[in-house]
Specification:
The protein is α+β, with helices and mostly antiparallel strands. It has 2 domains: 173 residues, no CATH class; 161 residues, Glutaredoxin. 61% of the residues lie in helices and 9% in strands.
């Protein structure tokens, strides 16, 4: 039961996160459908809406451009590809479930609603012990002071939803389902300090900012990934100091200079552990703590080569559409923000299983 709860907790959390995305895409995808139907007689027979020296402008061309603009506005940078993939995947899953349920209902000579209601009725009731277990295992996720008594009803309903989800999972397990939805991938240069072998099947390139609080939250996640997949995953750190973080850029310089003395990751950890203390003197203090050659460190801090390395990372991040931190590219697949380890783990497993070449 514990594994089942964790599995469906992850899935439902991902689905919940997509609700806003899906509603935002309704208008966009509706416009896309209008563009996709350009070959239909009902569309192609429409008169042009404008003429330029006799050259027609069609309504579907205007709508297609509006669709592109709306999509780019709602999902700036690299977020659009990821949002569209998740929306497509969720819709595919819904269609798969609908078809499997429809087949079972037809076999039982019931309506789909009747068949599903009958299956739900057969499920065991959620017990008080299961509610208690869920509360205990997830207590750190609730607001401080939240008691079990205030959560009994929502937890019971949630666990009931997990049971209902298991019906669909059972149908999928018995069916032959093949999904070949391609992910959008960017070409990302793995420049920077790395953990893991160059031969790893999965490369995670992280664009980060030492003054970003969300970036510090994901540090333990990256360490856990490195521990779980010591031979299969390589993590590469690149710099994306945001302009409104006063000390982020010089902190990036400090990490590069520590890296020149083979102490990048130790310095990296010190910076994230002391995000409120990233002034120039403090950066030198961390170098002293690590017993670095201070003359080399100070020279490096003002070297044009150091500034150029950060400038390259900033340029590459902009070209990739990474405008916020942290930003991750898992074998070129974009993940935005301080994602939970389950999001990385799912993608890593998918990439490891993907045929190479």
């Amino acid at each position: 039961m514990k594994r089942s709860i964790r599995k469906y907790t992850t899935r439902l959390r991902q689905v919940a996160g997509l609700v806003t995305v899906l509603f935002g895409l309704v208008a966009v995808l509706a416009c896309a459908n209008a563009g996709d139907n350009a070959n239909d007689d009902s569309v192609s027979d429409q008169p042009p809406i404008a003429l330029v020296n006799g050259d027609p402008i069609a309504l579907e061309d205007v709508d297609r451009r509006i669709k592109d603009s709306l999509f780019a506005e709602k999902f700036p940078g690299g977020k659009g590809d990821a949002a569209l993939y998740e929306a497509r995947r969720q819709t595919i899953n819904e269609i798969i479930d609908e078809r499997l349920i429809a087949r079972e209902a037809a076999t039982a000579q019931l309506s789909e609603t009747e068949w599903m209601t009958a299956r739900i009725t057969e499920l065991p009731e959620v017990t008080d012990a299961e509610v208690q277990t869920f509360y205990t295992e997830n207590q750190n996720r609730f607001a401080p002071g939240t008691t079990l008594e205030t959560l009994v009803v929502p937890i019971r309903e949630y666990l009931g939803q997990i049971r209902e989800t298991s019906i669909r999972e059972g149908l999928r397990d018995e069916a032959t389902v093949v999904v070949s939805l391609p992910r959008e991938r960017k070409t990302v240069a793995p420049l920077g300090y790395a953990l893991g072998p160059e031969t790893a099947q999965v490369t995670i390139v992280e664009f980060s900012d030492f003054q970003c609080p969300y970036c510090s939250k994901v540090v333990p996640t990256m360490k856990e990934i490195a521990a779980r997949y010591p031979e299969q995953v390589r993590i590469v750190f690149r710099h994306l100091p945001l302009s409104f973080h006063d000390n982020a850029r010089i902190a990036a310089y400090g990490s590069i200079c520590a890296g020149n003395q083979d102490r990048f990751w130790e310095y990296h950890d010190l910076l994230f552990a002391n995000q409120r203390a990233l002034g120039r003197e403090q950066l030198s203090g961390y170098a002293t703590t690590l017993a670095l050659d201070m003359e080399k460190f100070e020279t490096c801090m003002s070297a044009p080569e150091t500034e150029a390395l950060v400038a390259t990372d900033l340029k590459d991040a902009a070209q990739l559409g990474a405008s916020g931190t942290p930003a991750f590219f898992v074998n070129g697949i974009f993940l935005s923000g301080a994602q939970p380890i389950e999001a990385f783990d799912e993608l890593i497993q998918e990439e490891i299983a993907r045929p190479q070449g």
